[in-house]
Amino acid sequence: MTDGQRKYGPLGTTLVIIPTYNEAENIKPIVSRVRSAAPEAHVLVADDNSPDGTGKLADELAAGDDQVHVLHRKGKEGLGAAYLAGFRWGIDHGYGVLVEMDADGSHQPEELPRLLTALKGADLVLGSRWVPGGRTVNWPKYRQLISRGGSTYSRLALDLPLRDVTGGFRAFRAEALKGLGLDDVASQGYCFQVDLARRAVQAGYHVVEVPITFVEREYGDSKMSRDIVVEALWRVTAWGVGSRVDKLRGR
After folding, report:
1. Burial class (CB in 10 A: 0-12, 13-18, 19+), 240
2. CA 214 to CA 61: how far, in whole Å?
3. Between vectors from CA 170 to CA 234 and to CA 56, what angle results, nearest 5°?
4. Which of 24, 69, 103, 190 pairs with 221 at a CA distance of 20 to 30 A?
5. pLDDT tens track for 167-188
6. What's the angle, vertex CA 102, arms to CA 96 and CA 107, rounded to 5?
7. Got the DSSP string for 84-145?
8. What is the dihedral of CA 16, 69, 196, 138, to 10 degrees?
9. Are 214 and 136 in contact (CB under 8 A)?
């Protein structure tokens, strides 16, 4: 399958990265669902030293399944740092595809094959709530407003041809990730997702969106906070202003 004149090679083995912090109620069900939905895929649980024992539960899963792995981190450093550590681990271990997925069940593992099929002709596939066929279930109105508003603002500020810029259910080809300058990424939360999306578009990668159903978590607490929203707002604004200044200067 091609994008223009480009030919895409085989995907290679998939690694699904699941960052965790206090997800003891969710980790076993979500890993089980991933293994059922995509039996050929491997799973990496990146745990930020969860006080509730999530890391120990993940170790138990890994002990009984050679395709489940655990990356123990020193403490809670944020979503972006956990994914970056997971990306590096996956690249170092030779995986061809790296997938972002939440631990709380909001991303449906049963939809993972749809993302992987689309990746056969792309560099990055976004699971999108805001394209035709995408939807949310049991999500509070204020969260929908934040997500839709954040995606719209990011799209306009950064001139991105994407509908769901802040979503966290994504599949990358490893080669594409290597070209995104991950060593320079310092953003977290929503902003981390926006940052990777804009880097992919700026790099000229072929980015595809496929519809997903996003389901509000049943157990545990959301990691969304006011600080994450504020960080996203000021970083996106700074990136947008910087991009326009560069264009005016002819860069």
Report:
1. middle
2. 25
3. 95
4. 69
5. 999 999 999 999 999 999 877 7
6. 90
7. HHHHHHHHHTT-SEEEE--SSSSS-GGGHHHHHHHHTT-SEEEEESSSTT-EEES--HHHHH
8. 50
9. yes
**Nearest by Cα to 119 from 214, 5, 19, 210:** 210
The DSSP 8-state label assigned to residue 184 in this structure reads G
pLDDT at 221 over 70: no
Do 54 and 24 touch, CB atoms closer than 8 A? yes
Residue tagged 């170790």 (tokens)? 59
**Structure tokens given for 48:** 């930020």
Structure tokens at 124: 């990055």
Across the chain, mean pLDDT equals 90
Question: Are the C-beta atoms of 206 and 3 separated by less than 8 Å?
Answer: yes
Q: What is the rounded CA–CA span in Å between residue 192 and residue 189?
A: 5
- Secondary structure class of 35 (helix, strand, coil): helix
- Give residue 248's pLDDT: 63
Which pLDDT belongs to residue 2? 40
**Using the 8-state DSSP alphabet, how is residue 185 labeled?**
-
Q: Report the Cα–Cα distance between both ends of the chain, in Å, rounded.
A: 33
Give 156: exposed, middle or buried? Use CB within 10 Å, 0-12, 13-18, 19+. Answer: exposed
